[in-house]
Amino acid sequence: MASDRPIRLGVFGARRGAAFIAQAAACGFQVVAVCDQDGGAGRSAAAGCGASAYADFDQLLRHPGLEAVVLANYFHQHAPFAVRALQAGLHVISECLACATVGEGVALIEAVEASGRTYAFAENYPYMLANQEMRRLYQAGCIGTFVYGEGEYIHPMGAEEFVRHAPRADHWRTWLPATYYCTHALAPLMFITGTWPESVHGFVLPAAADDPCWHQVPHTGDPASCILVRMAGGAVVKLLQWNLRGHGNWVRVHGSRGLMEKLRHGDPGMVRLVREQLGEEPDGPTEQTYLPRWPEAGEQAARAGHGGGDFFTLWHFAQAIRGGTQPFFDVHRGVAMSLVGIQAHRSALAGAAPVAVPDLRRREERDRHRHDHWSPDPARRQPGQPWPSVLGEITPTPAQLANAGRMLAAGR
Ligand SMILES: NC(=O)c1ccc[n+]([C@@H]2O[C@H](COP(=O)([O-])OP(=O)(O)OC[C@H]3O[C@@H](n4cnc5c(N)ncnc54)[C@H](O)[C@@H]3O)[C@@H](O)[C@H]2O)c1
Predict the structure, then answer these.
(1) Helices 17-27 and 39-48 meet at what angle, rounded to 10?
(2) I want to staple 185 with a disulfide (CB 3.0 to 4.6 A). Which of 49, 153, 179, 251 is the partner?
(3) CA-proximal residue: ligand 1, atom 23 (nearest)
(4) 168-200 pLDDT per residue, tens
(5) Is CATH 3.40.50.720 what the domain over 7-121 is classified as, yes or no?
(6) Which helix (H) or strand (E) holds 328?
(7) Is the CB of 20 under 6 A from ligand 1?
(8) What is the mean pLDDT of residues 393-408?
């Protein structure tokens, strides 16, 4: 696609979808259609950008001249909709997760390959300023070979805020296994170092009895998890995610010749670089803490949500479509990161035993895993398959359901 005219974009899911609508024009898109089964939300988002509103995905796919679609629907339902959009000849940018089972990952990769269209995994955290600078430093050899990394995505919610985001007792946020929301912690490390996950040990952190919010409203999963990931090349990564106290995200990378990290406090764009320069000619300061410059498009990025990340995901998607290529966060990286969460839940249920992350770039691995639909999703789990919580089946109490109903009504 050589022309510079805006690419005609459809948005599926009007809640998170609003962030894509906000960035669309700056990234070279025109939002022509919005689809949400919640007609009010869909119509109001569509009216705000002069687009058509639909309640049904098939209607969205049939919108005249549509070229690309954002999947911002439920967390665990992206892959089947991505496959349908690709088969309809559309480019796809998908929110996390890319796939909810290993078998869905195989089907998604093969659908992208068969379509010849661009698929982008919408991981926005790697494009925050500090993470882009650490990628530059790593590629310039400033810290040597990647040895160990840490990534954190911590997002606590009070009970009232939680029920606004999970308005029904079966909403994905009430039951999601605590290892599944891992891509915000892992993606920056893959982006900075270029490495891939090979195997995981999963640890789930159950809710404390004295948590003043968690037990007030329906939860049938667990609040948080820690995952140790062995990366190709031997480095180890520690990921910490989800509903813990201490809101924020953080990245730390140790190399053979230095350390770099995003600051934990103060300006979140700042980077700390430490190089003791042991056994080598000193060629600069031992320690620097500084605010880097945006590598590109800084003005637009600075205005976007998630520290600029919401701009860059769409921007790279547009560039890949125009160039007939795939972005850095392509279907393979999107699926690999999603499999880390799935396999870490398997590991947590087995006492943190190591579980391999299948490399679905390899065709023989696809054949081994294409029928793997192991899933703790309460709506699709088969007899003998696990529950979302490592504690087993949890049923919301009448008091939790009543509290949630009261909070929702009060918030309206
Ligand atoms: N990258 C980020 O920073 C970030 C931030 C927020 C959310 N997200 C991701 O974005 C996705 C959406 O998040 P959310 O908070 O908006 O979720 P949500 O569950 O609150 O909203 C999903 C929306 O999709 C609509 N929808 C779902 N299935 C549909 C269907 N079959 N037909 C029509 N409409 C349908 C729902 O009505 C709802 O309005 C999730 O995957 C979430 O993880 C990412």
Answers:
(1) 20
(2) 153
(3) 13
(4) 999 999 999 999 999 999 999 999 999 999 999
(5) yes
(6) none
(7) no
(8) 95
- Within 8 A by CB and 6+ apart from 324, the residues are 1, 118
Burial of 65: CB neighbours in 10 Å, binned 0-12, 13-18, 19+: exposed
SS3 of the chain: helix, strand, coil, percent, to 5:
35, 20, 45
The number of helices, as runs of H, and strands, as runs of E, in the chain is 14, 15
Residues of the chain with CATH 3.30.360.10: 125-297+330-369
Work out the number of other CB atoms within 10 angstroms of the CB of residue 327.
25
CATH 3.30.360.10 corresponds to the domain 125-297+330-369:
yes
The answer to whether residues 390 and 349 touch, using CB atoms and an 8 Å cutoff, is: yes
Distance between Cα 402 and ligand 1 center (Å): 24
Which one-letter amino acid corresponds to residue 139?
Answer: Q
- Give the residue, by CA position, lying nearest to ligand 1 atom 32: 37
Q: 74 in ligand 1 pocket by Cβ < 6 Å?
A: yes
| Global model pTM greater than 0.90 | yes
pLDDT tens across 243-254, in order?
999 999 999 999
**142 CB under 6 A from ligand 1?**
no
Find the length of the chain.
412
> How far from each other are the two terminal CA atoms of the chain, in whole angstroms?
45
The three-point CA angle 26-40-77 to 5° equals 70
**Residues spanned by CATH 3.40.50.720 within the chain?**
7-121
d(CA 375, CA 378): 8
Q: Are strands 29-35 and 7-12 parallel, antiparallel or unpaired?
A: parallel
The distance between the two most distant Cα atoms of the chain, rounded to a whole number of Å, is 68
CA-closest residue to ligand 1 atom 15:
16
